[in-house]
């Protein structure tokens, strides 16, 4: 039997280091036989990524800069990807940002600028990259983004990011309708708390982690590899009937009152 993602080319956005959810996804996609293209924002992330790829014997098809705040950067990245690789079959969007001072206190105090930044990088970016990526998805394929329970419920401190993730999840549904006619599926994974660079230093993170072990049906932490395998499934033909969906990879925490 051939590997699940044999002959599939997938773009991965959002590896900052070995703790990144996108790195867990990279390992799952590589093990499933996919050819991988990476985008990064900061030079530092590129360097970390290249070291990781080398250490893990993963040969990338391409590593290209893409700042999702900038339409020209997105256009240029996907144009280069198209010119070098032709057709792609998948896209992983694992990118988000909000100013630290908006991730504490009351949501009511969110500034206009802080609100727009969170929406811009964390939600609108999926719309912008889907528009460019679909041009290269001539054989159909899958797009998967990363979200969190704070989109559905009020989670202390998540604040402006919860509202951005709500927009992201609604975008998954609207985009799924638009690109479905071209055989492209759009889904999200809603992960439980995982200690990553983004999560570092944000208030309330440690408490959120410990509650999973106490209250979630599986009574254990979520890790990058679990999210990686679920994302791999959603990108693969095994999920060919699934689109517009938010799949929780959270030890079942979201079902508990
Ligand atoms: P990381 O810090 O590892 O990854 C965040 C990534 O976002 C970095 O690679 C960063 O790139 C990228 N990024 C930020 N701004 C931009 C931009 N303007 N253009 C391009 N890339 C940008 O954290 P995670 O792996 O935790 O986060 C990945 C996703 O998972 C996010 O959407 C997050 O909300 C989501 N998530 C995380 C959970 C957790 O508990 N960790 C739980 C549920 C969802 P660079 O460093 O190069 O700027
Ligand atoms: C309820 C919680 C804990 C409180 C809220 C955390 C929200 C985190 C999301 C954003 C993405 C974090 C963020 O933007 C941090 C930046 O302000 C500062 N960090 C950086 O700039 C680093 C260097 C770069 C790499 O980070 C980014 N993003 O570019 C939620 C947690 C239980 C779960 C969680 C952590 C969710 C999530 O969405 O990440």
Bound molecules: NADPH dihydro-nicotinamide-adenine-dinucleotide phosphate, ligand N5H
- By CATH, the topology is Rossmann fold
Percent in strands: 5-15%
Order of helices and strands: EHEHEHEHEHEHHE
- Please report the distance between the alpha carbons of the first and last residues: 43 Å
Count up the domains: 1
As laid out across the biggest beta sheet, the strand order is: 3-2-1-4-5-6-7
The top level CATH class name: Alpha Beta
Looking at the overall shape, the CATH architecture is: 3-Layer(aba) Sandwich
Spatial shape: globular
Q: Total number of helical segments?
A: 7
Notable traits:
257 residues, alpha/beta, 42% helix, binds NADPH dihydro-nicotinamide-adenine-dinucleotide phosphate, binds ligand N5H
Describe, in plain words, how this protein is organized in 3D.
This protein has a single domain (9-248), classed as 3-Layer(aba) Sandwich (Rossmann fold). The mean pLDDT is 98. Strands 3-2-1-4-5-6-7 form a 7-stranded parallel β-sheet, with helices on both faces. The protein is 42% helix and 15% strand. Helix 1 crosses helix 7 (224-235) and helix 4 (112-136) packs parallel to helix 5. With 257 residues, it is an alpha/beta fold. The protein contains 7 helices and 7 strands; from the N terminus they run βαβαβαβαβαβααβ. Bound molecules: NADPH dihydro-nicotinamide-adenine-dinucleotide phosphate and ligand N5H. The site of ligand N5H has 21 residues, from helix 6.
Summarize the structure.
The chain is α/β, with parallel strands linked by helices.
């Amino acid at each position: 039997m051939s590997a699940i993602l044999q002959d599939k080319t997938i773009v991965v956005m959002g590896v900052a280091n070995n703790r990144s959810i996108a790195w867990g996804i990279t390992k799952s996609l590589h093990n499933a036989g996919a050819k991988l293209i990476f985008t990064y924002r900061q030079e530092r992330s590129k360097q970390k990524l290249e070291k990781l790829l080398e250490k893990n014997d993963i040969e990338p098809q391409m590593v290209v800069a893409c700042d999702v705040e900038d339409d020209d950067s997105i256009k240029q990245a996907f144009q280069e990807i198209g010119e070098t690789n032709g057709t792609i079959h998948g896209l992983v969007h694992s990118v988000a940002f909000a100013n630290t001072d908006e991730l504490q206190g009351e949501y009511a105090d969110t500034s206009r600028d802080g609100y727009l930044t969170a929406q811009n990088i964390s939600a609108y970016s999926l719309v912008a990259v889907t528009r460019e990526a679909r041009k290269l998805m001539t054989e159909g394929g899958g797009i998967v983004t990363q979200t969190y329970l704070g989109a559905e419920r009020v989670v202390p401190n998540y604040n402006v990011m919860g509202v951005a993730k709500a927009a992201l999840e609604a975008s998954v549904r609207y985009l799924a309708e638009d690109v479905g006619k071209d055989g492209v599926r759009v889904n999200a994974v809603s992960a439980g708390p995982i200690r990553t660079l983004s999560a570092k230093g944000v208030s309330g993170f440690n408490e959120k982690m410990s509650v999973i072990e106490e209250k979630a049906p599986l009574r254990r932490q979520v890790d990058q590899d679990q999210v990686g395998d679920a994302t791999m499934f959603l990108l693969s033909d095994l999920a060919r009937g699934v689109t517009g969906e938010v799949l929780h990879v959270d030890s079942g925490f979201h079902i508990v009152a």
